[in-house]
Structure prediction request, 81 residues.
Amino acid sequence: MEKTDIQSKIKAIIAGMFEVNIADVPEDKPFKQMANYTSMRALEFLAKVETEFNITIDPDLLPKMTSVEASTKVVEDLVGA
Prediction:
């Protein structure tokens, strides 16, 4: 899977979770700076990414998944992109 495909899917997940237009999801903005961000949202994000990519993410990696860009890197490493 290409990096751009991974990144697009992660942006779509974030857009859906935060009810914003996908074009308004920045690649480098920390999720914590988004309105309505909570630790529960972080867990929801983790679950949605696991489902979307059919992978299991070690919960210890969650602190590294701070933005679209950082999350893309974690997923790339797990799927071997």
Q: What stands out?
A: The first helix runs from residue 3 to 18. The chain has a mean pLDDT of 93. The chain has three helices and no strands. The domain at 3-79 is CATH 1.10.1200.10 (Non-ribosomal Peptide Synthetase Peptidyl Carrier Protein; Chain A).
